[in-house]
Amino acid sequence: LIAKYVLKKPNNEITDTDLEGYLKDLQEQTNKLCPQDIDEAIKKQIVKSLTIKNPAERVLAHFAKFDDFIEDNCLQHIFKEQKGIKRKIKYMRDGVRPATLHDMIEHAIKFGDEQKAEADEAKIFELSTTKAKQQHELHLLTEKPRHKDTGNYTSRLSE
User: Fold this and answer.
1) Which pLDDT does position 159 carry in this prediction?
2) What residue spans carry the region label Disordered (predicted)?
3) Is a pLDDT exceeding 60 seen at residue 127?
4) Using CA atoms, how far apart are residues 127 and 93, in angstroms rounded to an integer?
5) Other residues' Cβ atoms within 10 Å of the Cβ of residue 88
6) Which residues lie below 8 Å from residue 10, measured CB to CB, with a gap of 6+?
7) Which of 109, 47, 37, 38 lies closest to 76, judged by CA?
């Protein structure tokens, strides 16, 4: 059908190059999302998973998920060069969970010595990993333990 209706050639004259060109054009048309669609898709899909227990692995998975999203949707042209990298980092920061970790990263960038992390993927990765580990340690310290027999939360003071 593609040969007859789209490429308007007999089946026996269709080459791999013809099909490749057709598929590439189709993919480009499909991926011409308007900025609002891209923004919405990123906000829905690029949220740090809290199911991964290791904080460093969570950060790595978050970054990998965004890179996969960019590649899967052929958006490399939007997130290249300095302006695009800053945009990518902004989306990455917006997707950080839990809120405590998000606030820790934002505070380090705004008030600490981490301003360069706004435009450098390696620096934001390093900062995110460091803060995720700190947040995880804080969480473990403040988490209420469960009673070993009942599974109910207990006060640390009662043990």
Assistant:
1) 47
2) 136-159
3) yes
4) 11
5) 22
6) 3
7) 38
Query: CA–CA separation, 102 vs 76, rounded Å?
Result: 25
How far is the C-alpha of 145 from the C-alpha of 121, rounded, in Å?
37
Answer yes or no: is pLDDT of 80 > 80.
yes
Residue in the structure block whose two tokens are 């040969």: 3
What global pTM score does this model have? 0.68
HSE-CB of 97 using CA atoms within 13 angstroms: 14
- pLDDT of residue 117 exceeding 90, the answer is yes
pLDDT given at position 153: 64
**Cβ neighbours of 41 (radius 10 Å):** 14
> How many whole angstroms separate alpha carbon 59 and alpha carbon 127?
10
Length reported for the chain = 159
Distance of CA 67 to the CA centre of its chain: 7
pLDDT at 157 > cutoff 60: no
Joined together, the tokens standing for residue 20 give 């490749």
Tokens at 54, concatenated = 């290791």
Report d(CA 52, CA 106) in Å as an integer. Answer: 22
d(CA 54, CA 22): 44
What integer pLDDT is reported at residue 108 of this predicted model?
Answer: 96
Give Cα 119 to chain centroid, integer Å.
16
